[in-house]
Amino acid sequence: MSENTITFEIDGVEVQGTAGQTIMQAADVAGIYIPRLCAFDGLEPFGSCRVCTVKVNGRFQSACTQPIAEGIIVENDSEELLELRRNLVDMLFVEGNHFCMFCEKSGNCELQALAYRLGIAAPKYPYMFPADRNVDATHKDVFIDHNRCILCARCVRASRDLDGKNVFQFVGRGPQKRIAVNSRARLVDTDLNVTDKAVEVCPVGAILTKHVGYSIPVGKRKYDHTPIGADIEANKK
Amino acid sequence: MQDTQDLKRVVIEPVTRVEGHGKVTILLDEDNKVKQARLHIVEFRGFERFIQGRPYWEAPVLVQRLCGICPVSHHLAAAKAMDLIVGVDQLTPTAEKMRRLMHYGQMFQSHSLHFFHLASPDLLFGFDADVAVRNVIGVAAAHKDLAVQGVMMRKYGQEIIKATAGKKIHGTGAIPGGVNKNLTIEERDAFLKDIDQMTEWSRGALKIAKDYTVENLEAVAPFGSFDSNHVSLIREDGAMDLYHGNLRAIDAQGEKIFDQVDYQNYLDYIVEDVRDWSYMKFPFIKSLGVDDGWYRVGPLARVNACDFIDTPEAEAARKEFMAVTDGKPNNLTMAYHWARMIETLHSIEKIRELLEDPDLQGTDLVLKGDRRPEGVGLIEAPRGTLFHHYKVNDDDQVEMANLIVSTTSNNEPMNRAVSKVAMDHISGKPEITEGLLNHIEVAIRAYDPCLSCATHALGKMPLTVRLVDNDGNEVAKKST
Q: ipTM higher than 0.90?
């Protein structure tokens, strides 16, 4: 065991990580799934969606940003935290226009899959049905449907840090916060390319490659048979 | 405009054992003579509006949400329009046959649902039988075998839809230019295992429908009947084809009004009239005008319009059907049931044919061509010819959608049927009983209307009949 090894506890199970890892990173390696939406492997931690909230020595922390430390006691799979996560996911559903029944991302959508995993059959909050969300289909290969955006900033980070382009940015504050593109507000005027990481990382049906639609049949989609997080839980020894 | 101020008004609301929500109003004078009878469709949906701005490939999945009974029709009609949008005129054999299998599976389940669950209580127990018995539960109690057959036949059709579309309701199988899956050997063999039983039950249902019509011909012949034009898709050789073909219109005597019309040009032949008392439009044949150009669609129109059926048992049944009217079109409203069961047998024959075709295991599923701005997709849905017409902009967004659904085409005929039954059975009667009012509903049910689709809402409520006097005061109210 190297001197960099850090030993701590998640839900009573001893976990070992390496100095510099976040709680989420160490949990992933150990095969313990902590739900998440804005976090994505290869992107800087952002800590905005709060779905990965855990309790560290009794205090709420986001697992994607909090570094591990020797001897900490982490709570992850408790009813209190599950309820908190359900409420967060519920709010994301009602804040936008998420019509899973005809969304082409259905079955491959992380928001939908997380709702299923958390046992949300229908949101408990009233739908807001925002009328100000548009669709930008001006780009020949990619379109963005703001109805389904959950403001996770994966596209912002991927475009800036992985594609080196800065295509996407936040504009507005509070309830008016939106994803916008960096020139005249139309996708066609940017240097976005369909192969960009920014397109690939969207967890929901907001940024999509055109003409793909429903080409994957029901039964063959990512979450048709296994819940979200099953790939991480497969790491468990 | 007719003065209706001093007339009594009887309202049947909603009409039951149909898909969706409608009401019938009957206006009576002081002697209970019927002055006017109308079927009103009181739902408003707006799918044509909210598809606007959506990417075109969403249309086949989104628009099918119009309906939970035959969403496959909308799924396929929209997909056929989108094939043209993506520049594909001819699908691969595997894609076309998978879609056909999906469609015949749907036809089989929808017709079975209608005959066994919705229509059979009237036919088995009589139009004015005790309403407590005259329903699907009553059928299950008195004719258990039939009730079970209805359920199992519907299940079979639904399983075919699942195997081809991915889900029993609102699947995704048809995509622009093709399909997203083929049929596995395991899926095929599961269907082949039960196909003899399904065929046998289809023959039995056909016999019930035929015997009912023939044995009660004297009563059935005038019931809500009238001469009309008939419109249907027809294969190039004149055969019945429920998935694809050209448009044919015939008059009540069987003379062709137009034939082998490419449906891309449907607007040159069919026009929709709007009236202020219904959310449903009234389509008519342009060349004949609004007064004479109305027409029927659906099983009756299809069996009347085709030259032959390309499966042996259904063709033999068609010949028997046509013999009743000496080869001329059959214009009896109640003959819809018989025609519907001929199509059910035809569908199961076609399903067998397709299951035995190795093309269904092919892997060439999708084609792509040059994008076009406009496409029209037509299909013979269980209830009749279904029109989907879309315009798509350069950014791949739907700009315009126009749907003419089967029940819309049958709007005028259903109103005529309601009017005729009201005149024949209700007019002048001292007391208007529930059984008499059910006669009206029997005539509507023959058309198997889907009112949800026709107004492009969903809702079923118990039957309420209100009798209102000349001053608009409620005199009596009956609810089931």
A: yes
